[in-house]
Specification:
Helix content is about 25%, strand content about 30%. With about 800 residues, the chain is α+β, with helices and mostly antiparallel strands. Strands 10, 12, 14, 16, 17, 18, 19, 20, 21, 22, 23, 24 and 25 form a 13-stranded mixed beta sheet that branches. Helix 6 packs antiparallel against helix 7 and helix 7 packs antiparallel against helix 8. The radius of gyration is 45 Å and the shape is flat.
Length: about 800
Amino acid sequence: MDIEENTTIGLFIANKKNALHSTKGEYKFMKKKAIKIAASTAVAASAFVAAAPVNKADAAVNVDQIVQDAQNAGTVLKWAISVEGSADYVTRPYDAYNAAKKAIDAAEKALKGASFSDQLKYEARLTDPKIQVKRAQAYIDAITSSEKIKDLTAGLVAAEKTGDLDKVEAAYHKATAEYRKQASLLDKVYGQSTRDGIRNAVKPALEKAVDGLKNEVTVHMLAREASELAKADKLEDAAKKLTDAQAILDANVLKWEKDLQKSVDDVADAMPLKVLAVSSDNKNTVTVKFSKKIQPGYAVLPAGQFTFTNGLIVQSATVAADGKTVTLVTTDQKANTEYVLSYQGTATGKAFKTPANAVDSTLTVVETEDVNLDATGERSYTVNVTKADGTAYTGKVAIQLFESDKKTAVPVANVAVKTINGSVVTPVGNVYEVTAVNGKVTFVVKDNNTDNVTTTVVPKVTRLEDDVYKFAPSTKFWVNATGGVATATTVDSVVVDTTNGFLYVGLNPSGTVNEVKYTFDSNDKFYFKNVEVSQADFFKALSVQDKVRINYVAPYAKSNVSEFILDVDVTADAPLKVTNPNGVLTADTNATRLEGTGQPGHIIEVYKGSVATGNAVDSTVVNSNGSWVINSLNLVAGQQNDFVVTSRPVGSSVPAATVNNIHIYQAYYATIASTGLTMTEKTGNTLLDIGDEINFTFSHATLATTNNALKVADGATIKLKDGLGYTRTYKVAKVDHDTVKITDIIQPTVADGYNNAYGATTLTLMEVTGITNQDNLVFNVSESKDLIVNP
């Protein structure tokens, strides 16, 4: 018995007897010998039936031969699935496979009567035939999968020829799924060259078919999935699917491109317009993502359509090329603040929150707000100072007082640091130095008001050890008004504290701003263009660049009556504008909206007709950012609707008497007509036939518009009459925004003389059903041109 046989038997005994430990290893023995065994030997071995031996010696001889037959059958099978043998990656070696299995089965049955030592010896010799059977099973399974792939590839090619996208997608998935299954089966096939041979028998044809259709199938799937997501109100996910689909359409030339584009457009059109997401750069820019194109053809939108909470003002709104992304430029966004967006006056539920300012934990000021105080007032600040390792700092700290621009030092005589850590500290110049106590510095700033001028103070605290510093919040010490302002004076700055009844205002009567504090109460009077108004309306209208006159009784006493007068007629108002819509077609309902800009606080009133007479049909107030919106106006169907928009100050009943303050908005609620109706030949003849396309050019009898897009219902038709008086009706389907395709011809009910004439130059347009524009305006046949065939 040679070494290989002894080793194999040893491993077999270990398995048979459940040895205490297992032997792991790989033994490779190479024997150089030529083996040539006829397949008939394996077949004969498989058919062998052992007769009962006369004695043990005969039995041993018979078992040895049976086992040898099994080995021979295994060898035949080995070469049948080997690239060095007869394997061709297509033929499944069923005969050799079945012969080997039967020979192994016969050998195992013969071994049942053998001695234990013979069982060990012969079963070891059966190991390799059994391995070849397993390898052959994997080889056969992989080839069987290849045959399925061939059939499925043919099915995919056939589905492509039908042009039915549902069939194409189904065939595509079946073919690619079987290919993935084969990839798993190939992992079990022995030999890299054998795996590659089986794979390459079907891979090129399938890859060619799949590569030619993967984009079409993907777009088809994405459009369907987007439709399902939209119906489930998962608009953000639906919009993502449509974006992905459109990206593929834009980047590739696809089969059935018009049909796929229509599918994507139809889903997009059916989706409700909603804000999906709002994001910010935390400075002055906000990006708003919509579920669909917001207003096709518009690159800029009125800023007033977008409003935020917490006083954030939108200054401009720009639409990106995708039509669904709007970039807003805003006023400065405050740190650690949440801003909730409203679109066209309706809260969207979408918001963003700016991050908190970064905090240097080694030097922090407890106070966080800017404060207004009376002149001669004082304010306490607390500063926590630590070392880099977090322990309390006990070194020197410097305090300086600056004006609000943080550049000019405040004269000590006017505003000074009264005490630091409870003690008076003499400054050197305007710098106060002190030793921190247990990592803390507390100081009090006091306005001495030696100049009788309002002063804004910004303290700067510096840790002298490493020159780390921080500016504390400002304190503004206001001088109280000592008298009134007799002439109209420009407002340079304004802060209103209605809770405490304080008006902090900077007035510029002669180029020099005088900042003073007025105190008011319920006894005082407020006027808007000489008309008395409420406190709330007055302060709502008051803004920078307005002009005021103040008859102030000083010093303040509750029994005194002061008069605050806003002279709006001596300053130029922001012009009244109607920004959208203006001179456009509208439909769907009998109501529309107006929006525009104007003077903040002014009252906008809309009148029906060509002059502002009678009662206004709607009104609103211009927002503080200068925008306004009228949410709905009832329109009379089928005719021109005229409106006059006026603007007037609060308290006045007369519109501002300037041309710019009156604008007319005209809306039409009517029908559409076609000024051009021509045929595009698609079928190779000069006749109007199934597959030919009809192109529309729209306008309105009175008002031209360029934003019409076809909406074509299922079963839509066009009815035409030829020069002989015969009619024919064509069923049509939408191709794109201005084109339909003939899908069927409905034969006339009279004898057909039509064929002789419908290739002529012009056919009379008799009837159109199921075709509107994007605003659902009905097609007007009487105002439309006839169909021109093959122009």
